[in-house]
Design brief:
Blueprint (H helix, E strand, L loop, with lengths): L6 H15 L3 H11 L2 H8 L3 E2 H8 L8 H11 L3 E7 L13 E7 L1 H4 L11 H7 L2 H7 L2 H6 L5 H6 L3 H7 L1 H24 L9 E5 L5 H9 L4 E6 L1 H4 L8 E5 L11 E4 L4 H6 L11
Parallel strand pairs: 4-5, 4-7, 5-6
Antiparallel strand pairs: 1-3, 2-3
This protein binds S-adenosylmethionine.
Amino acid sequence: MSSGHSYGKLFEGQAHLYKLLYSFLPSMCLKWATDLGIPTIIHKHGKPITLAYLLSALNLPSSKTWVVPRFMRFLVHNGLFAIVRVQDDDGEEEEEEEEEEKEAYALTPASELLVEGTNNHSMSPNIKSNLHELMIGATLRMGDWVRREDRSVVETSLGVSFWDLAHSNPEIMSAFNEAMACDSQMVNLALKDCKSVFEGIESAVDVGGGNGATAKIIYEAFPELKFIVFDLPSVVADLQGIGNLSYVGGDMFQSIPQADAVLLKVQHLSEKLCQTKPENNTNLS
Ligand SMILES: C[S@@+](CC[C@H](N)C(=O)[O-])C[C@H]1O[C@@H](n2cnc3c(N)ncnc32)[C@H](O)[C@@H]1O
């Protein structure tokens, strides 16, 4: 070969390529488990769930049940679930037979964060929004995006920016806001241990604060704090402040309101960066 790599190295390179090629599979299986509500099923079961119970809760066509143990094992390998041994209680009628140990699927800390309906820090809206087919479809167009003048891959893929898409499509906007809000609920957990961070501060601004989910959590803990949620005018237009919590519209790349502390939790920074030339990004450092 002209590059000079030995055949042995090229075989290793092929294995590495396959690894990169299929590295989207953990994400897709994460979406599969979230869409089917498997973390919630396990949680409601109240203990690790055997395959038989899981299949009965999922109620899939019989032609598809073979998928479940394979995907579950893959997700166990990736840390989303754990396998434990339990006494056989799979509900099948086995009269007077000795109880047998079976494998069962248990929640890990990661999948516990995907349980829906029982706590206020479920991350499943985040999974659904970030792995939405429109977003995944857009990332497939990165090659086209760099060849064109489009500001973002979403624009290359869909013809409009993500924000224009979201503002004209209530379903996308609400999925996005839910994703951001559930991520913000994690602040609740952090605040329990880190209250000192806000002590001694009289005012704060949450830049790109969305619908104020993070702000409300902090405001509840520190009602004396003058808290501004700063976001695009179209985002905050219909939002009502309360007490010391207020909403201000504007463009963070032009200016932001004065405050003692600035919060910047903008998960889609890459999207934003794709829309902003590097010399304008110094504000973000
Ligand atoms: C990923 S969301 C984060 C929302 C919130 N910080 C949270 O964590 O839940 C990014 C936010 O930045 C806002 N945003 C985008 N461009 C902005 C700009 N130029 N000025 C102010 N806010 C902007 C968006 O409207 C959106 O609400």
